[in-house]
Structure formats: structure tokens, C-alpha cells
Design brief:
heterodimer, A: about 350 residues, mainly alpha, ABC transporter involved in vitamin B12 uptake, BtuC, 2 domains, two-stranded antiparallel sheet, B: about 500 residues, alpha/beta, Rossmann fold, six-stranded mixed β-sheet, 18 helices, 19 strands, globular
């Protein structure tokens, strides 16, 4: 029986070998934390300020805190796969999206569910437009993605500043609070639910369209994709527009957590973490084949690392340095050189086992 | 080690997961001989070469090199080079933006400083002595492919090499360039270098080689002296079967078809790459474009498929006027196109065999109608079986397949779309004799079933065997059309060379 199980798990990772790295990273973090503090992952149900029962604990903070990053990692995976480059303007675009949402909310006297829906739709539309702008630079004008998105990276937060006339307005509405923390009666933090929603959205997109196949084809061999009737420009645009939607959702969550928009600090430097999540997820940053689940796992691994470091009372100024050490390890383990070495070791073991089998 | 023997390989074994790539293979190379290594795709030629150059680690066996006592272990290509084994690969692996001299000496520095003047003089001497028409200070990219290939060889032999491996060195060269390469090979041979020559071109083997070692399915068939092995026998040894039916293909059906109702007709069709031309193909006809490399034959068929930007012309498909300005339009009109450059335009290297097979059909079904996994598996299985594609499974990436099998996958991709008209640009380039014949036979069978096929090949003989009508191109213009009894090698040659009058009679 145990042997059977092992076979099954090894065949799963043979098919999804790139999930191994984020999986191992998370497992190591879990074990490390359990040894350090056996109660690290305990989850409690407590009543919050409004008197509703909610989940609490480090695990919840990890999942909750990684929500924006997880959503951005999904979109970044697509852009990476299709264009072979990364979008470094996601933080700035999230700030624009958040500011747009606030602008719409502030335009009416009272905030009703309808205004919130309209606001989210508006911020999605704006973010998709900016995404399309990035996508056009990359696909039509064939500018390197990092250079193309450098434009919005540079000016995005200024645009966010203009949208609300330079102010950092606060929004006080129970609906916004619900989006940023808990929906009354639901013990799971809303951002986690939004991640789930985005995951389902992408799942449906992959199931009902050929997006996955086309994006990988374009990323691997654009010329051949064209000769098979695929429109590479369209696919790259689509990837950037979908990343725009992800930015809008991340901006919405980020804004709702604080009930205010600060265009300067909202999701600052998140682009680098999002790219990192894609890399830890085992995706080739040069484009082509991708695995979105890997990127999301990468996002959670990054957040788990951050929370662990905070729990260990590492001063927040030092966290980045420690993070870098762990990331170096992960990236080296996932590098082709180490992978090849592993493969060779496995082959040798396999042969030895085969020889033993034949001998008996 | 005996005198005159520079390399022996004895009892070499190599196994990959699911494939026994080499089983008990022996190979002997003598001083100053050109030794052809022959075999179909997947016979184990590349694996043997890679074992010899240290790319793969052998599972068992012994390699001995002249001048080194006992068996040697070759750990890497660099290690191989230090032991006197140099390789020049099919794809040129030099840097086109560096100069010829830089390319010859790059990465071979022992000291930290470089004496460029001396380098250039050395390079000049070597190039001159080998008769290679290149200047040391010239940028490599400005040389022709053949000269680049020869520079790669010069680089290899300068490193005190006893064994020179040439892996498909001629596949992208024209006849004149091949001759240049051959004289270089003969020159090296007279200097005592042992040359292992891997190629698919039988004529070339007989033109330069002294001995032939034949592999089949990872096993050694034998070592032969060239004069004792007629070409026909070599082919049958490579394929492991008799030659019955290899030479006689029946193309009667297709010949009659050429007069029939047109499937596709173009008037004044032109693209960014092709000058305006007229073209017509009947239902069930097999015709071909022929001409020298660069004559515009590939550009013309690319225009039919709208692979390049279309700039003008009128197109009729089954008598109805159609606008075909993008590949997808052509596909929807029932046209399939197997591109000339398989690596650049055909395969999606990292995707699985299955995904590569269903790609075109999936695109035709549309963005919002993805096929189910089951459907894909069924189609892939079906075509892997019909075309006898050799792959460990349909999940392996296409890049892990041999060239011939990759080509079959691309062919499967287009057959799966059930086209009315299939364009095959060099479908048999770089693949073995057996698969070649299979593809030719398939083309004629498809035509019999009513498919129109346009076939392009650099081998005139192959064109004559399959096509019932040949369109001859020169300098990007159609200069003649041959059919029926006019279809002889001499006629084609004359027309290509510029004798329109000769074929009028």
C-alpha cells in the first residue's frame, strides 16, 4: 500500500515536475514552523469587532495576506508565457484601478451596492484599457515587455494621483469594509474568496476557450503559431488585458483593506514579488509552457516566508534580506543544472533498481 | 592499438527510458579515412555520436583513442576535444557577429592575454592551407553557409584533432558548396585525419567515403567497404527489407487528374516575397514547384497559403472568388501547408506530440470550441498509428523526437484537418530513405482519394516520381511547365538552367 502511494505521487510530479519546487518550499516552511512553534498553524474561531465569528491564525493571515499577490501572479503567468517577458507596471496599475474605484464611490452621496458594482466595473475597464496599452506596445510595436511596461511603471502612480485630485480620500462604507476583511456571517476573509473567484474565472476560461494552448504556442514559436492560423498579436493583447483585470481586483482588495487609497504606497514593489511567484512556480520566464497553479503556490510560499520571518520577530527592515537568502536557494534548486543532476541521479537509481529486478 | 586505427568503440550500450538506443555497437575508424555512418532516423547514429563526444554517458562499452593507453572515459564535448575528437554539427554553432579568426580561436585560450595579430596570421595560414575562401578579419556572418561550415571545420581540425565528426554538414548547402566541402574533406583525409561523416544523401556517401558503417534500430548491421556495397544494397541494409516497390510508384491517377476541374486557381498572386504569378491545381492532382534554392519556389507556395503579406492577385477556390490574406483564411478554404523549415515554422518544440498534432484542427474549430482531452488523445493515437510515428508516448515534447518523426507529426497535423489541398514544402528534407518513400507513397494515395497536392523538393528525382506536372522557377519567375513525357531529369535541368526552347519540342 505505501509503495502504491509513492508510485502515484511520483507520477503526479513527473507530469507536473515544475510544481515540485513551490511544493517543497511550502512543505519546508510548514515543517520549520511546526518545529519552532507547534501551534503555529492552529486556527481559532473568534468573534470580531462586529460580533461575527471569524477564522484567525497564522495560516489565515498567510492566505489572506497573499491574496493580491496570488491574483497578480495568475495574470503575470499569462503575460510571461505569451510574451516571454514581464509586466513591471502591475503595482502602478493596481493604484490606478484603486483610485478609479474610489473616484466612482466618492461621486455619489451614499454608497449603495450598485455604486460598488459600478465602481469595480469601472476600475476593471480602466485597468483593461491600460493593460491593452501595454499589450499593444509589446505585440504590435514589438517592444520588450519590461521596457514597454516601464512607461506605466514610471507614470502610473502619477496618473493615480491625478484621478483623485492629489488627495488620499477615505471611503467609509460597510460594503468596502466587507470586501477588505469579512462579509458578515462568513468566517473566511473576503480577499481569499476573491482569489478563489479569480481562480474559478481562469479555470472556466481555460475550459471554454483554447487560450492555454494558444498562449503557449505563441510563447514557444510565434512564427509557427501564425502559420497555424493563430493570431499572436491577439493572444499577447489578451494576456495583458487579463493581467489588467487582475490588477483591478488586486487594487480593489488593497484599497478596501484600508478603506482609503494611497496612490504612493498601495501594493508598492508588488511587481517583483509577482514575477518571483511565477519563477518559483517553475515557469520559464522566457515564455512558453506555463503552470498557473505553480505561480499561485509561489505567491503563497512568498507570503508564508514573510509571515514566518515576522513571527520570528525579525525586524521588518531585515525581512527582505532573509527573504533574498531563501529565494536564492529556491531558484538554484529549480535551476536546469540542479534539475539535470537530479534527473541523472534518478536514472542511475532507476537502472540499479531495474538491474536488481532482473537479477531476482 | 593497431597501427593506423585512431578510434575504436566496442560493445556500446545506451538506454533511454523506454528506448534501447544502442545495443552492442562496434565502430572502428582508421587514420586518413572518411567513414560514413548510415542509418534511418532513430537508428542510433546521433546517439552514437553523442556518446563519442561526451554529450551522453554510455551505459556500457569501451572507447579507445589512438595515443591514449587503455579505455577512455569522455565526460564532455570539451573533454572529447582534448582527446582529439572534434565535431562540426549540422547547425552552425559559431558566432556570426564575430570575425572568422575570432571564431576560430574563441574559448581556446590557455593564457589570459590574446595576441590578436598572431592569431590572425595563424588563422590566415590555416585558411589558406585548407583552401577556404575566407579572410580572418571578415565577419563570419558575411560568409556563405558553406564557408561558415568550413570555418567550423578549420576550427575543429586546428585543435590537433585525430577524429573529425561531421554531422549532416551538407544539408543546407547547394551542389557547388558541397563539392567545396568535399575537397576540404579529401584534403584533411590526406593529412591523416579520420573523418566520421553522417548524412542522409546517398550520392554524397559514395562520392567521398571509403567505408560505411550501417546501424539499424540501435544495432550494428555491419561495416562495409564502399566499392563492395552497391547503393541499392546499402538502402536495403538500412531499411532491413528488400527494395521491392521502393522504386516503382504509380502516379497514373494523378496524371489524368491534372486536366480536370480546378480546385484552386490564382491569377497574378503576389506577396511581399513573391512576384506576381499564375497558378492552378486540379482536384486530385499532384504538381510541384522546382528550381534552384532561392528561385522563388517556396515563396510562391507561401503566397498561396498567405504565409507572407499578400500584396495582390485574384484567387478562386472551387470556382468561387475568395480572399485569402491570412493563414487562417487558407485553412478555412481547405488548404494545408507543411513549411520548409520544420524547426522554425513547423514544430512547437516544448509542446507534446499530441498538442502538436491537434493544433491546426483546434485552430479551425475556433477559440471558443476547445477539444476535450479525450478527443485529442483519440486523434493523436489514430495518427501516431497511421503514420507510424515513433514516440515514447503522445505526452513527450515533440523536440525529443527524431527529425523524420517530427516531420510526420507536422504532416499528421495537416492531415487531421482533412484539407482538400495540401502544400508540402520539402517534406523529405533531412529524413531517411524509408520515411521518404513512405511520404511519397502517402502523397500519391491522398491524391488518388481526391486531394490536390503541391510538392516541393530539392531532389529532382523525387519530384519526377511523385508529380505529374512540374512548374519550373528561376530568378523568382515561372519559366516553364513540364508534364507527361516531358518529365525527364534532363528536361527539368535544361529548363532550370535557362533553356525554355529546349523543352518546347
Amino acid at each position: 500500500m505505501p509503495a502504491d502511494n509513492r508510485n502515484k505521487s511520483s507520477s503526479f510530479f513527473q507530469k507536473n515536475s515544475q510544481l515540485l519546487i513551490p511544493f517543497v518550499a511550502i512543505i519546508i516552511l510548514v515543517i520549520f514552523n511546526l518545529i519552532r512553534d507547534p501551534g503555529f498553524f492552529s486556527i481559532a474561531i473568534v468573534n470580531n469587532n462586529d460580533g461575527y465569528p471569524v477564522l484567525q491564525g497564522n495560516l489565515v493571515s498567510i492566505f489572506n495576506g497573499a491574496s493580491e499577490l496570488a491574483i497578480l501572479a495568475m495574470g503575470m503567468t499569462l503575460v510571461t508565457a505569451a510574451s516571454g517577458g514581464q509586466d513591471i507596471s502591475v503595482g502602478a496599475l493596481a493604484a490606478i484601478a484603486g483610485s478609479t474605484l474610489v473616484k466612482v464611490l466618492k461621486s455619489t452621496e451614499t454608497i449603495t451596492p450598485l455604486t460598488v458594482i459600478l465602481g469595480i466595473l469601472a476600475c476593471c475597464a480602466v485597468a483593461m484599457l491600460f493593460g491593452a496599452f501595454n499589450g499593444m506596445l509589446v505585440s504590435v510595436f514589438r517592444i520588450q515587455p519590461m521596457i514597454a511596461t516601464l512607461i506605466l511603471f514610471t507614470c502610473g502612480r502619477s496618473i493615480a494621483y491625478w484621478i483623485n485630485g492629489g488627495a488620499t480620500p477615505t471611503v467609509s462604507s460597510p460594503i468596502i469594509t466587507a470586501i477588505g476583511s469579512f462579509i458578515p456571517g462568513c468566517p473566511v476573509p473576503t480577499p481569499i474568496l476573491i482569489v478563489l473567484l479569480m481562480g474559478i474565472l481562469f479555470f472556466i476560461l481555460f475550459r471554454t476557450t483554447t487560450m492555454g494552448l494558444y498562449i503557449q504556442t505563441v510563447g514557444i514559436n510565434q512564427g509557427a503559431a501564425k502559420l497555424n492560423g493563430i493570431n499572436p498579436v491577439g493572444m499577447k493583447l489578451l494576456a495583458f488585458v487579463l493581467l489588467g483585470v487582475c490588477c483591478a481586483m488586486a487594487g480593489t482588495i488593497g484599497m478596501s483593506r484600508l478603506s482609503l487609497i494611497n496612490h504612493e504606497t498601495l501594493l508598492l514593489n508588488v511587481e517583483m514579488d509577482a514575477i518571483l511567484a511565477v519563477a518559483i512556480g517553475g515557469n520559464n520566464l522566457g515564455g512558453g509552457k506555463f503552470n498557473m497553479i505553480g505561480s499561485v503556490m509561489g505567491a503563497y510560499a512568498i507570503q508564508a516566508l514573510t509571515i514566518t520571518l515576522y513571527a520570528m520577530k525579525v525586524p521588518s527592515t531585515d525581512v527582505k534580506a532573509y527573504k533574498a537568502i531563501v529565494i536564492i536557494l529556491l531558484v538554484v534548486i529549480g535551476s536546469p543544472v540542479v534539475k539535470d543532476a537530479f534527473q541523472k541521479m534518478k536514472n542511475r537509481n532507476g537502472r540499479r533498481m531495474l538491474a536488481r529486478k532482473e537479477a531476482t | 592499438m593497431d597501427d593506423g586505427i585512431v578510434l575504436t568503440m566496442r560493445g556500446i550500450y545506451k538506454t533511454f527510458p523506454g528506448v534501447k538506443a544502442l545495443q552492442n555497437v562496434d565502430f572502428t575508424l582508421r587514420k586518413g579515412e572518411i567513414h560514413a555512418l548510415m542509418g534511418e532516423n532513430g537508428a542510433g547514429k546521433s546517439t552514437l555520436i553523442k556518446v563519442l563526444t561526451g554529450v551522453y554517458e554510455k551505459d556500457a562499452g569501451e572507447i579507445c583513442v589512438d595515443g591514449i593507453d587503455g579505455a577512455v572515459t569522455i565526460r564532455s564535448p570539451q573533454d572529447a576535444q582534448e582527446k582529439g575528437i572534434s565535431t562540426v554539427y549540422q547547425e552552425i554553432t559559431l558566432c556570426p557577429n564575430l570575425t572568422v579568426a575570432e571564431n576560430m580561436y574563441i574559448g581556446r585560450d590557455k593564457s589570459a592575454t590574446v595576441h590578436w595579430k598572431k592569431r590572425e596570421q595563424d588563422a590566415d595560414k590555416l585558411l589558406k592551407s585548407l583552401g577556404i575562401p575566407a579572410r580572418p578579419k571578415q565577419q563570419l556572418g558575411s560568409c556563405s553557409l558553406a564557408v561558415q561550415q568550413m570555418v567550423a571545420i578549420a576550427r575543429a581540425v586546428d585543435a590537433d584533432c585525430k577524429v573529425l565528426i561531421l554531422d549532416e554538414p551538407t544539408s543546407s548547402l547547394d551542389d557547388h558548396e558541397v563539392e567545396m566541402l568535399f575537397s576540404l574533406m579529401r584534403d584533411l583525409k590526406s593529412r591523416g585525419v579520420g573523418i566520421i561523416f553522417v548524412t542522409h544523401f546517398l550520392e554524397q556517401v559514395y562520392a567521398v567515403s571509403d567505408r560505411i558503417t550501417v546501424l539499424r534500430n540501435g544495432e550494428l548491421v555491419g561495416e562495409f567497404e564502399v566499392q563492395n556495397l552497391p547503393q541499392v544494397e546499402l538502402v536495403s541494409k538500412m531499411m532491413g527489407k528488400d527494395l521491392e516497390g521502393l522504386s516503382d510508384l504509380d502516379k497514373e491517377g494523378s496524371a489524368n487528374a491534372s486536366e480536370g476541374e480546378a480546385f484552386y486557381e490564382a491569377k497574378g498572386l503576389s506577396s511581399s516575397e513573391a512576384r506576381p504569378f499564375d497558378f492552378r491545381i486540379a482536384k486530385g492532382e499532384v504538381n510541384g514547384f522546382t528550381g534552384l534554392l532561392g528561385s522563388g519556389r517556396s515563396e510562391s507556395v507561401r503566397a498561396i497559403f498567405a504565409a507572407d503579406r499578400i500584396t495582390g492577385g485574384k484567387i478562386l477556390v472551387e470556382g468561387k472568388e475568395k480572399s485569402i490574406t491570412k493563414p487562417i483564411h487558407a485553412m478555412k478554404a481547405g488548404i494545408g501547408y507543411l513549411p520548409e523549415d520544420r524547426k522554425r515554422d513547423g514544430i512547437i518544440a516544448d509542446l507534446s506530440v499530441r498538442e502538436n498534432i491537434i493544433l491546426a484542427l483546434q485552430v479551425m474549430k475556433g477559440f471558443f470550441h476547445p477539444m476535450s482531452r479525450k478527443e485529442m488523445e483519440k486523434f493523436a493515437d489514430e495518427y501516431i498509428k497511421t503514420l507510424e510515428i515513433k514516440a515514447a508516448s503522445q505526452d513527450v515534447p515533440i523536440k525529443s523526437l527524431s527529425g523524420g518523426n517530427q516531420q510526420k507529426v507536422i504532416l499528421a497535423r495537416w492531415l487531421l484537418t482533412h484539407p482538400d489541398y495540401l502544400i508540402l514544402d520539402e517534406p523529405t528534407r533531412g529524413i531517411d530513405v524509408g520515411t521518404k518513400t513512405e511520404i511519397q507513397r502517402l502523397v500519391l494515395k491522398l491524391a488518388e482519394e481526391g486531394m490536390s497536392v503541391t510538392f516541393i523538393s530539392s531532389e529532382i528525382e523525387e519530384m519526377l516520381r511523385t508529380c505529374s506536372r512540374l512548374i519550373v522557377m528561376r530568378d523568382r519567375k515561372i519559366v516553364g511547365e513540364l508534364k507527361g513525357h516531358e518529365l525527364t531529369q534532363t528536361n527539368v535541368m535544361y529548363t532550370i538552367a535557362g533553356g525554355e526552347k529546349e523543352n518546347a519540342g
